[in-house]
Structures are given as structure tokens and as C-alpha cells.
Amino acid sequence: MYRSDLFDKHFTRDNENSVPEPDINLKQSGNDVPIGGLGHDFSYIQIGTSSSPATFTIKNLGTDDLNITNILLTADDPDFTVDLSSTVFTIPPSGITTFYVTFTPQGYGRYRNLVINSNDPNVSLYNLRLEGDLE
What's the rounded mean pLDDT across residues 32-59? Predict the structure, then answer.
């Protein structure tokens, strides 16, 4: 018996019995955004002006399509704007998509939670915090 035959007989390869599934990964400026963590701090912005858009990248680390059902703020707030104009909502394995958030303060400093719903079986609800202050 060859050594490879012995290996195949006694060990199961990790990917032989795996079920294809999506796996969401979120980055902002190249850094991982932890679930429930700070997604972006817009810092101090003058009232009546807008920040530069913060770019968020969603990558599918899984082996099946990642379907994003929505990306939204947890409360209606004119201070934060989410731009989904270039966002793809079905992301193939190893694929990416982007969305942008802009902060335009109307009053006091703010924070908002942003939620991403998807078909990731481990993280179907990905939430993060956005913050901004008045200068």
C-alpha cells in the first residue's frame, strides 16, 4: 500500500464533507470591523458641511453566494447618509462589494448603528456603530 493510500484511508480532508455557505467580512479603510464595534468615527465636522464618504467593503469569505438583504441605519437620521448606488447584493465566493457613509451634522454630535442583514448562517445580523461630532 502506498503512503498516500494510507493517508486517504485514515484521514478525512477538511473540505470533503463541508457544506457550502457564505461568510461575511466587513472592512473599513482596509481594517476589519468587529461585529458591534466602531465602524467609523467621522471626528469633528462643521455644521452644514459633509464629511468625505467612508468606504466600507463587504467580502464573501465563504464557499456559497452571500446575499445581502439590506443595509440600513437603525433610526432615520439626516446626519448620516448611506449610499448603496454601487452596492451588489449577491456576492459570489471571494467577491466584494462596497457602500459609502457620509456624515453631515445638523445639530449635536451623533452616533448611529448600521445593520447589514445577510444569509451568513453565523452572522445574519451584522451591526456596527458610526460616530460624528460637531466642530
Answer: 93
